[in-house]
Amino acid sequence: MRPKHSRKPQYDAAPPKVRRAPGTPTKNQLRTIALAEARAHVAKWKTLIPTANATWNKLHAADLGRTEGNVHVLAGLVQMHYQVSRQEADRQVKAFFDQYAPAAPVVVQPVAAVAAAPVILAPEADAAPVEAAV
Fold first, then answer.
1. What share of the chain is helix, strand, coil (3-state, %, to 5)?
2. Residue span of the structural domain in which 61 resides
3. 106 has a pLDDT exceeding 50
4. d(CA 6, CA 34)
């Protein structure tokens, strides 16, 4: 005879949900920040198009505009129009962006309502690698 109430198989309990630390941005906030940074990058690139056109006069302004500041696409155009190696094109594009569009330090705004000042994260040039004792 079959029991009235069959037992469901017992599975391992689901791991507890990991909550984000208080004051850290949510996924939606991170996505919004990334989109804003991308828009700012494209706007900055539009101001650099005449300078890039003067640097690489074989490239048309329309082609430069279509790259939207993407270093890989721009290096591909330089490689194609100037018949240079990919490494040389990458070096030229990197030098251009280092000279005309230096990277700004990342500013992280705290999410908490009672925030005193933004936290600035910048790479430390003086930091030495830590060796593990064997």
1. 45, 5, 50
2. 27-101
3. no
4. 51
Number of domains present in the structure of the chain? 1
C-alpha 10/C-alpha 53 separation (Å) is 67
Q: pLDDT grade, residue 101 (50/70/90)?
A: confident
Residue partners of 82: CB distance under 8 A and separation at least 6: 56, 58, 89
Phi, psi for 105 (deg, rounded to 5)? -65, 150
Structure tokens at 70: 């993407």
Q: What is the CATH number of the domain that holds 38?
A: 1.10.1470
Q: What is the pLDDT of residues 77-95, one digit of tens each?
A: 999 999 999 999 999 999 9
The gap between the terminal CA atoms of the chain, to the nearest Å, is 67
* Token pair recorded at residue 49: 């198009």
| pTM (two decimals) | 0.58
**Residues 67 and 79 sit within 8 Å (Cβ to Cβ):** no
User: Within 10 Å of residue 73's Cβ, how many Cβ atoms?
Assistant: 15
Q: Quick one: pLDDT at residue 95?
A: 93
Backbone angles phi, psi at 30, to 5 degrees: -65, -40
